[in-house]
Amino acid sequence: MKWKLRSIHDPLESAGPDARVLLISRHQIFHASLDRQLQPVLQSLVEKRLFQGQPGSTYILPVWKKDHFETYILTGRTEGPLTAGELRQAAAYAARAAIKLGARRLEMDIPSTMQEFMVEQDAEGCAQALCEGFILGSQRAKHYRREQPEQAQLEEITFQLDGPVEPGFQEAWEEGVRWGSSIGDGVVLARRLTNLPGNLLVPSDLAQAALELAERYGMEADIIDEERLAQLGMGALLAVGKGSAHPPQMIVIKYQGTDTWEHVTGLVGKGITFDTGGISLKRGSGMEEMIGDMGGAAAVLGVMEVLGQRRPKVNVVMVVPTAENMPDGNAVKPGDVITTLSGRTVEVLNTDAEGRMVLADGVTYAKALGAERIIDVATLTGAVEVALGQAATGAVTNDDVFMQELITASRRAGENVWPLPSYPEYWDMLKSDVADLRNSTGRMAGAITAGLFVGTFADGLPWIHLDIAGTSWSRKESGLEAKGGTGVMVRTLTEWVRSQEEISDIRP
Fold first, then answer.
1. How far apart are the first and last CA of the chain?
2. Cα separation of 134 and 103, whole Å?
3. Rounded to an integer, what distance in angstroms lies between the CA atom of residue 366 and that of residue 267?
4. DSSP structure class, residue 481
5. Contacts of 67 (CB under 8 A, 6+ apart)
6. If we measure between CA atoms, which residue out of 241, 236, 319, 235 comes closest to residue 274?
7. Cα 117 from Cα 387, distance rounded (Å)
8. CB of 109 closer than 8 Å to CB of 34
9. 356 given a catalytic annotation
10. Which of 96, 344, 356, 498 is flagged as catalytic?
11. Active-site residue among 178, 282, 333, 411?
């Protein structure tokens, strides 16, 4: 998608837009100084209850101007200044309306003062939010029908300034566009991978997607196959993948943005490409959604896409343990005891508690590759959805300062993260009579103990676990989300990683 910024006085470089986006509230319709021809039409729409200017509402309005029609995409908004989150949402709704209209080129007026749009947002933040919203609102899941329906794609969006701007405005705006475009691309990549059917995304396919990403941006990558997994002693990942015809793999991508490999962040994503539950078989109803059980892997790959495009001065190692969890004569069984890469033994009480096991080896390996702090992302438990629904990602940590940094980033990104407690009593629930740990503690505090199981393998390093089981998949189109994979946590993790670049600038 092409992005342009132009003054109202600049000559058009090409044909005019297919539609103009107008963010407008009910109050503005009656009290703001608008186009003399447009305002009475808008007031009539309100009076006829066709458009009320409420957030989340849109209306396609063709208006005759001299010798041609101009089409407006009216998009409702709140009164007063808008937050970055409200800008994202408004842009997403406008993008959906544009696609239904068949518009490929949009234009949106930007007031020169920016005060109409801003709440603690500068020009860069506003541009980033708008670009993210337009990209995510226009994304759709792929269909596999014999006859593919034709669907317009947004190709160009022009932000038009209606007057003079402060010095540095254009540079800041363009930087926001660059970040917003890259983050949007990262989220779309995560969504696309999450939406792939299980027969089209087995562990080797996920590994190939990672290799292509690394090659695209010149990053170092490594794929550890089944033989090397055994040589290294990754018993947990091997155990989970034993029941599948598609062998498990460990995927690694290194992004080095500084001269030395230090202050390294480890991003570990659960990559279960399909989860039947194994011998502890899931119910059949809804199992088709388990194509999305690699949503954590998709999220960290999305972050690597952004890093590859933007090249910040940070160091990140991404680790994705990937497998299929299938029932088979070779599959791991309840009661088995396996040995992880760390040397800890695990009593398997439930083979459907497989995500925490592959993450155990993933976290240990991230440490071995130099990670000094670790964030793992996983569709880990149904318990987190019971606790928080689909509105928030659950989080567990061993470092409260680290958690607060991440929550601050999540607020900037517009993604909800809710911290869960990690009292000693919860750690005690992981103790096994026959091994170092047990992989399931039953229904009580299930989201917490599952996260703490993974945290055990951080061995005291600053660590955060993000359980996206409730937020990684949307059953309907809503707000920024299309139906299917959401790409959740790409925006939050990217914002946090960006904050580390600022810290690296002041390190001795």
1. 40
2. 13
3. 8
4. B
5. none
6. 241
7. 35
8. no
9. yes
10. 356
11. 282
